[in-house]
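User: Reviewer 2 asked us to show a designed sequence for the structure in our supplementary figure. I'm pasting the structure tokens here. Could you produce the per-position amino acids so we can include them in the response letter?
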């Protein structure tokens, strides 16, 4: 056995008395040693005899017990004495220990029995222990079982399926909850959890050593035809899965590291593991697991980013030491790739805005990197550094205010701006350097920004029509970040100067006399955001000069000639109105990345209002002079779309029988169907002026049998919202939908009849639920301004 008698008690007691951080009892070095005692039958689940060591050494105690040395000693003695008898005592008659899957015999103070989920027969958790110990043993046992299941599921997947599709957060709610639990308890006993986790990781990777050696052996042998067996490939995939799960837990635990000063040995362990994965290895790019190896490297970069939030100086020192070593080597393609791999390991480092000392330390580090950027000659390394700066600076630009005046940031901007701007004029650097110049302007002082942005703005506008679509997109993203700073942070210039700048931007994006937008094939939400930013400070300009023009307000609409422009205009109007009504304040700076490698999301999904926008509401938010114009043009757009892309594409039309939707909804129809979706989704938020309720319900009802699946769903959702939230519309919706089914859906289409009746039943059920007093929607039944007929 690993732990025996008083020797262990004395060791643990000595460590408990030395480590007094005030944030939790720090575990002994014996934690998890049993993981190293030999492989188990399953390869993941611990051996019977080793479970007490692995899952809960004496140090994993409840936070409530951590301040009492006597209690600590008692718990350690109890744990030590139980270790040798666990296997036998769990089977003994009258024992309080609970065997896997059995009912409990221990009664809690309030009369209930202790309960737990069943574990495999090889895992036994003593129920007659302190609460903190029980939590930790149970949590770690649950982790080993779930991790094994996830790896078994992964190994059954095709090799082409990336690890992230199976393992990352968001794929398994139960495992996500377990990860969050690790994060919560780590505040109280982080060192012990980390040691147990490291022991689990080392045991899992023991059998993968040969695979790792083969990967190393491939270095420098690109000319040899190295064929790896399927078994080796599968073993490597399993090792990568272990790394993935390990990183997920690490990220959660390390977020609590700020509560635990010291722990240098644990920090060093994490750094060693992470920086090992930032080393460039030749030969892996062509392997079957190449994509997954890059995913793991990104995950370790996220681990380092999390670690740097509480141990920045240690991470900085390690990074600079690694960089110095690589800079001292002979220049070669291998050295270049090694430096780039190292730089990418820091891409999730985030500058701490407070306290100011941390902010200054971060930008002193950035200045060291900037000096290297200015000195290095290799183009690829320069571009990698530029990309790293952008990753770090975009979050800073989104939140920076008075910090722009801090000397270290000011010096960083001035240090790089001139050279990077010059590099933007050269085609070989332009794609990589445009985002960096943008970020430097975005974190600069107001005077510096206003003196320099117009020249770079002109460069952005000139590249919107670049032949390279990537360059077009980069120029547009640079433009809308600059515009955000100009409108939101700096609050524009004088009226005439602002008008001139905005007019040049609008004319470039939406050229007069053109049916399209510039650049083409760009996600429309970028244009919507640009209009939203302008509306924040210049609402009248945004509505009259941009939205009205895009929607063709004041011009007759018989056919839809500019579907993309109309879609942008309508969506921009809705976004601006929604923001004003919800009193959201300033829109946030746009970000490009929404999900981290672990699956943790950075973007909060926006919830839009579906309450009807009325004249009174429009007046209260300052939109009354624009709202009637939008409603009038909205009805023209809807009728034109219905005539050409609604009625002709109904599944009840005999000419559409046996035709595939894909062939019917492509070409010039596609952008018009997209516009149709936008319009239908806008109901009942906007009710078209001049269209009766019966006409609108009939249009929506017909669209529930449209060939486009998304349009069908949106039409039904609009009908259901009218029934649920607007009492005055309920009878008309039910009557109109019933008339539509009887008139247009013949029994020659049995599937459509069946679907229609199901929808009708659901609409009636929604009405009934809305009238139920206990319904969550009962408060919305009272008719008012928001429920009035349009």
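Assistant: Here is a per-position design you can include in the supplement:
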């Amino acid at each position: 056995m690993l732990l025996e008698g008083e020797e262990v008690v004395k060791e643990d007691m000595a460590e408990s008395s030395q480590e007094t951080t005030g944030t939790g009892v720090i575990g002994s070095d014996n934690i998890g040693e049993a993981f190293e005692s030999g492989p188990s039958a399953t390869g993941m689940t611990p051996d019977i005899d080793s479970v007490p060591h692995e899952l809960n050494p004496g140090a994993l105690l409840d936070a409530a017990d951590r301040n009492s040395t006597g209690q600590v000693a008692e718990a350690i003695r109890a744990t030590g004495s139980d270790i040798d008898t666990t296997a036998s005592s769990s089977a003994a008659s009258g024992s309080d220990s609970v065997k896997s899957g059995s009912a409990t015999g221990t009664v809690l103070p309030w009369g209930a029995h202790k309960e737990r989920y069943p574990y495999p027969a090889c895992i036994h958790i003593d129920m007659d222990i302190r609460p903190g110990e029980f939590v930790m043993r149970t949590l770690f046992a649950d982790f080993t079982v779930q991790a094994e299941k996830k790896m078994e599921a992964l190994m059954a997947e095709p090799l082409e399926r990336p690890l992230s599709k199976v393992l990352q957060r968001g794929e398994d709610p139960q495992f996500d909850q377990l990860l969050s639990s690790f994060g919560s308890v780590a505040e109280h006993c982080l060192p012990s959890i980390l040691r147990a986790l490291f022991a689990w990781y080392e045991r899992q990777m023991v059998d993968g050593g040969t695979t790792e050696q083969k990967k190393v052996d491939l270095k420098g042998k690109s000319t040899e035809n190295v064929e790896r067996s399927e078994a080796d490939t599968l073993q490597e995939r399993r090792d990568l899965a272990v790394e993935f799960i390990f990183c997920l837990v690490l990220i959660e635990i390390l977020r609590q590291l700020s509560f635990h000063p010291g722990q240098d040995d644990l920090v060093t362990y994490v750094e060693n593991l992470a920086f090992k994965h930032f080393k460039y290895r030749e030969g892996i790019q062509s392997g079957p697991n190449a994509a997954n190896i890059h995913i793991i490297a990104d995950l370790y970069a996220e681990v380092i980013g999390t670690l740097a939030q509480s141990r920045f100086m240690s991470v900085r020192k390690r990074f600079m030491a690694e960089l110095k070593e690589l800079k001292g080597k002979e220049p070669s393609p291998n050295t270049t790739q090694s430096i780039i791999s190292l730089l990418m390991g820091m891409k999730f480092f985030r500058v701490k805005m407070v306290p100011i000392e941390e902010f200054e330390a971060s930008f002193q580090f950035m200045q060291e990197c900037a000096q290297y950027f200015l000195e290095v000659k290799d183009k690829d390394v320069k571009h990698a550094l530029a990309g790293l700066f952008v990753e770090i600076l975009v979050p800073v630009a989104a939140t920076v205010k008075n910090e722009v005046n801090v000397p270290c940031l000011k010096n960083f901007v001035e240090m790089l701006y001139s050279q990077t701007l010059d590099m933007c004029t050269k085609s070989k650097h332009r794609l990589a350097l445009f985002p960096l110049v943008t970020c430097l302007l975005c974190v600069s002082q107001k005077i510096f920004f206003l003196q320099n942005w117009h020249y770079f703005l002109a460069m952005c506008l000139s590249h919107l029509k670049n032949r390279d679509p990537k360059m077009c997109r980069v120029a547009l993203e640079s433009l809308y970040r600059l515009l955000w700073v100009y409108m939101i942070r700096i609050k524009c210039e004088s009226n005439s100067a602002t008008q001139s700048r905005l007019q040049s931007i609008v004319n470039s994006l939406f050229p007069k006399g053109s049916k399209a937008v510039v650049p083409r094939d760009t996600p429309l939400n970028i244009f919507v955001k640009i209009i939203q930013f302008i509306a924040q400070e210049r609402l009248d300009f945004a509505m009259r000069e941009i939205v009205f023009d895009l929607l063709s307000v004041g011009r007759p609409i018989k056919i839809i000639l500019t579907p993309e422009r109309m879609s942008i205009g309508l969506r921009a109007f809705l976004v601006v109105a929604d923001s004003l009504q919800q009193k959201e304040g300033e829109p946030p700076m746009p970000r490009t990345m929404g999900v981290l490698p672990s699956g943790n999301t950075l973007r909060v999904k926006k919830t839009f209002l579906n309450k009807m926008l009325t004249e009174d509401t429009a007046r209260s938010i300052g939109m009354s002079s624009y709202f009637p114009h939008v409603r009038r043009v909205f009805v023209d757009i809807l009728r034109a779309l219905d005539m050409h892309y609604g009625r002709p594409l109904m599944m009840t039309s005999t000419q559409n029988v046996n035709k595939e939707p894909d062939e019917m909804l492509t070409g010039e129809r596609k952008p018009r169907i997209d516009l149709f979706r936008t319009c239908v989704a806008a109901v009942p938020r906007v009710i078209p002026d001049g269209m009766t309720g019966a006409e609108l319900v009939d249009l929506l009802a017909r669209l529930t049998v449209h060939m486009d699946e998304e349009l069908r769903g949106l039409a039904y959702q609009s009908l259901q919202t009218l029934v649920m939230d607007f009492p005055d519309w309920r009878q008309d919706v039910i009557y109109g939908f019933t008339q539509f089914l009887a008139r247009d859906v013949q029994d020659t289409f049995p599937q459509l009849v069946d679907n229609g009746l199901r929808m009708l039943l659901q609409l009636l059920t929604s009405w009934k639920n809305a009238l139920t007093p206990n319904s969550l929607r009962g408060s919305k039944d009272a008719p008012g301004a928001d429920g009035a007929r349009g």
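For the response letter, you might also mention the following. The first helix runs from residue 5 to 18. The chain is about 60% helix and 0% strand.
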